[in-house]
């Protein structure tokens, strides 16, 4: 008789504890993340690293455009035609490519890390309309990551960026400014006094060639128009005017345990361990 009662009550017992229920939810669909923040705060860099760690698909406007061009898709051929004519790729086409990528079988299997959407451009859709698109996705974002950084610190960082024209690689001030590099090197040396003699021998050999290489490298770097401090301030002002409030509303609706806010003054690698 007791065994029959146990059988009757068993379906009504919660066989999962809270942690197991959360784990089950996360594994029921591929993990999807969105990285948010002011222009130039490092969204793309962090999103790329997260995509590598989580084995997700990195989705960002330039990345999607390049992929479509390389794969010679219908979208890619349109982009190529426009670029050959010296024309910009319209925001409508970029948005279509991003949404198409999110709906792809590849993303349905691996999940995504989305960066740069919603975008500041309201040429095709307002910021609120872009956020509605995010809310109505079949694969809705599980985790929102917001990178926070003060306007002053962000403008200083952006204005210190330089690009190598051949590779397109962007370098921060601490990667190209000799004074900053020397300062960081001195600070590092203070913390690494052990095995000092061996390290000094290696450094002397390296610095024998460094000045020429560094000089040639520095002469090739250029400042992009968007990195000029006045332009950076304007972009950040636009973000605060048209995007900040809708983004705050989106975050307010998010379950707080799946909302992560990070300090944008830290290096991307440090953000990953927060």
UniProtKB/TrEMBL annotation:
It comes from the Eukaryota. Signal peptide: none annotated. Residues 183-212 are annotated as: Disordered. This is Adenylate kinase 9. InterPro entries: Adenylat/UMP-CMP_kin (IPR000850), P-loop_NTPase (IPR027417). GO terms for molecular function: ATP binding; nucleobase-containing compound kinase activity. Keywords: Kinase, Nucleotide-binding, Transferase.
